[in-house]
Write a structure and sequence with these properties.
- The protein is α+β, with helices and mostly antiparallel strands.
- The chain has 2 domains: 62 residues, no CATH class; 212 residues, Fumarylacetoacetate hydrolase, domain 2 (Alpha-Beta Complex), CATH 3.90.850.10.
- Strands 1, 2, 3, 4, 5, 6, 7, 10, 11, 13 and 16 form an 11-stranded mixed sheet that branches. A 5-stranded mixed sheet has the order 8-18-17-14-15, with no helix packed on it. Strands 9-12 form a two-stranded antiparallel sheet.
């Protein structure tokens, strides 16, 4: 299933896309967090079938981020593709170089995720060197604590596309990544959540990004340095991952800072992040 949050007749609703993805069927859940937290898969299937006669054309709705207001910060992996590690070191060896024997985790503050077709805020006067990062985001479906890698798949709800917008100068100046990645308008997400049953595990999906139509990133999600099973096992060994927790798994090579000279974003630029089987997240910088 492809699940969405959308606005119709002035109300925010949850729904499931039709097979041809031209319409959405409403689901009886207050919001996506509630759906993930309370709906067993069998119940969700039943609700989706029950809504078959009540579809609304996508042209008549406005898609929101699938989880517009995450209940907790997004957990992120830094430098989790080798080619991206190499380009990051070339850009700023003091900030991104050195040995990385263990994964880099950081959190991304999200008061409200940016919708598909929504705006990336450029924050004039504060932000320089605005950058993009196409990422596969994993959504936890069951409370996870002390989960072994072999059992991680049973705790996953689904996947979506996330653009980890980054203010590179803030990121490197502060010597930590929270401020430079957690500003308002820095977390576009969507267009949908694909339920985990639809994707072979571990996911091996084409992932790419384009800026103003120019292909920038082009890779596959099976090239993660630290895979999803190991990520969830390690994190859940010491913290409880609640239903609806979002984990952004890192970005491949081709971000703006990786070019010579760098290709940072400017107001008016259109960024498209695409993951095979999920869809395209399209946003404009303003």
């Amino acid at each position: 299933m492809k699940l969405v949050t959308y606005r119709h007749d002035g109300k925010e609703r949850t729904g499931v896309l039709t097979a041809d993805e031209t319409a959405v069927r409403p689901l009886p859940y207050a919001d996506m967090n509630t759906l993930i937290e309370t709906a067993p898969f069998a119940e969700l299937l039943s609700a989706a079938h029950a809504a078959e006669g009540a579809s609304v054309p996508l042209s008549q709705v406005s898609l929101c981020a699938p989880i517009p207001r995450p209940r907790q910060d997004v957990i992120c992996l830094g430098i989790n593709y080798k080619a991206h590690a190499d380009e990051s070191t070339r850009y700023d060896a003091s900030a991104f170089g050195g040995e990385r024997p263990v994964p880099i985790y950081f959190s991304k503050r999200v008061s409200e995720a940016v919708a598909p077709e929504g705006f990336i805020e450029s924050h004039p006067g504060l932000v320089q060197r605005l950058d993009y990062e196409a990422e596969l985001a994993v959504i936890i479906g069951r409370t996870a604590r002390n989960v072994k890698a072999a059992d991680v798949q049973d705790h996953l709800f689904g996947y979506t596309v996330l653009n980890d917008i980054s203010a590179r100068l803030l990121q490197t100046t502060h010597k930590q990544w929270y401020f430079g990645k957690g500003l308002d308008g820095f977390t576009p997400m969507g267009p949908c959540i694909v339920t985990a049953d639809e994707v072979a595990f571990p996911p091996a999906l084409a992932i790419s990004s384009r800026v103003n139509g120019e292909l920038r990133q082009n890779s596959t999600t099976d090239l993660l340095i630290t895979g999803i099973a190991d990520i969830v096992e390690e994190l859940s060994s010491g913290m409880t991952l609640l239903p609806g927790t979002i984990i952004a798994t890192g970005t491949p090579a081709g971000v703006g800072m990786g070019f010579d000279p760098p290709k940072f974003l400017s107001p008016g630029d259109v960024v498209e992040c695409t993951i095979e089987g999920i869809g395209t997240l399209r946003n404009t910088v303003r």
